[in-house]
Amino acid sequence: MNQSESQNETADPSPIAAIATALGPAGLGVVRISGAGSLALGDRLFPGVDPKPSQREGGTFFHARVVHPITGKTVDDAVALVFRPPHSYTGEEALEIQGHGGAVPPRRVLEAVLAAGARLAEAGEFTRRAFLNGRLDLVQAEAVCDFIQSKTERAATVARSQLDGWLGDQIRGLYERATSVCADVEHFLDFDESELPDSFLTDKQGELAELIRSLSRLSDSWNDGHLLRDGALVVISGRPNAGKSSLLNALLGWDRAIVSTLPGTTRDIIEESIAINGVPLRMVDTAGLRETDLAVEREGIKRARDWARQADLNIYLVDCSVPWNPAEKSEWQQLSPSTTVFCLTKCDLAFRGEPELPEGSMRIRLSVVSGEGMDVLRRAITDKLGLAADASDCSVVSLRQVSELRNAIRGMVSADRALKAGSEQLVIAANELRTAAEGLGRIVGRVYSDDLLDTIFSRFCVGK
């Protein structure tokens, strides 16, 4: 199935408008207008300009007062940029008004634009139109949102590489290869087995094997990519007074959590964002693990264990300034050594004995007071997550994309089994290949539905 064969949306040509900059103290506030008639709409907003916006060439700009088309009052002084298709973000006729920043001036300009005949844009509608008009594929459209929302330089670099088209180019190449194999198989559906070329089945199996390897490499890159985009969940756990809140504060560089010698001070989840070696982390401080009769504290402990189970990495603290509690063994046994770092805390104080930690587990002597072990812990976090500073920035980051890749792999594996069974299962192979190819087409937007676009662009802000 290609784009023309599916029930696909076409871009609404009517002019839309939105504020494209954040509201608040700023030097500039930008209002963006896009769609057929945007420049004629500008004629009403800049009545004293000669030549009129609709008569100007694309790629030009002018300075003038923005006038409300109904009241006739001046709402702002601005610079207006003229775009003619296809040389605009959306590929449409567009006008961009750069006025004063702040909370009120951009709204005054937007109100004038709406009064002139534009309608308020929906979330992500400018980028949606860019996709529908062929300016971006769906991978690049998603990367626009990821780039805006990136929390670290590494995340921004990954989003930027996808905006440059590296992933879309790879997926399109694999899509073309998959549809080619599918077309070859379908071509011989009505042939007798004796009429098939001698090497046909083995040749197609070889092509499928290479496709599966290529898709698997892309799919595996998601393990790094989604951590770079969404942030790894790192949970700090341990018994009361093990130093969990102190460690969170030390990693953040400021006092986020209350630190007290009173056990049970932290009773709920405290979450903050931090970047280590360019990797965004969601650091979570949890309630101290112990038996208690207090209902509120018991709920906090239950939540702590729930978060530990879903964590990408657990940092379990053991207070070595007091004799270790053998009851902790039951907690340790629930943690995977591959995703756990044990920190022997308060090592600046008298050491009261080495705890019997699980065999092969990583352990670090740590003091947030003296700083001992802090750099070792930071390196251990990225090492355990498998995200070294020099890790590849070319990764799949979207759950939608990796789900389609995995489905395509399963379809091709099924098609390969059908081909190995012989010509009598060519129909099954063709159906599996067609489904797999359609999945690859959905990644870049060769195949899409309105529901898919609604899901993708609902993540965007209004004005982008």
Describe what this molecule looks like in 3D.
With 464 residues, this protein is an alpha/beta fold. It folds into 3 domains: 3-137, Gyrase A, domain 2 (2-Layer Sandwich); 141-221 and 397-444, tRNA modification GTPase MnmE domain 2 (Four Helix Bundle (Hemerythrin (Met), subunit A), Up-down Bundle), CATH 1.20.120; 228-385, P-loop containing nucleotide triphosphate hydrolases (Rossmann fold), CATH 3.40.50.300. The chain is 42% helix and 16% strand. The protein has a 6-stranded mixed beta sheet with strand order 3-4-5-2-1-6, covered by helices on one side. Strands 8-9-7-10-11-12 form a 6-stranded mixed beta sheet, with helices on both faces. Residues 1-7 and 262-267 have low confidence and may be disordered.
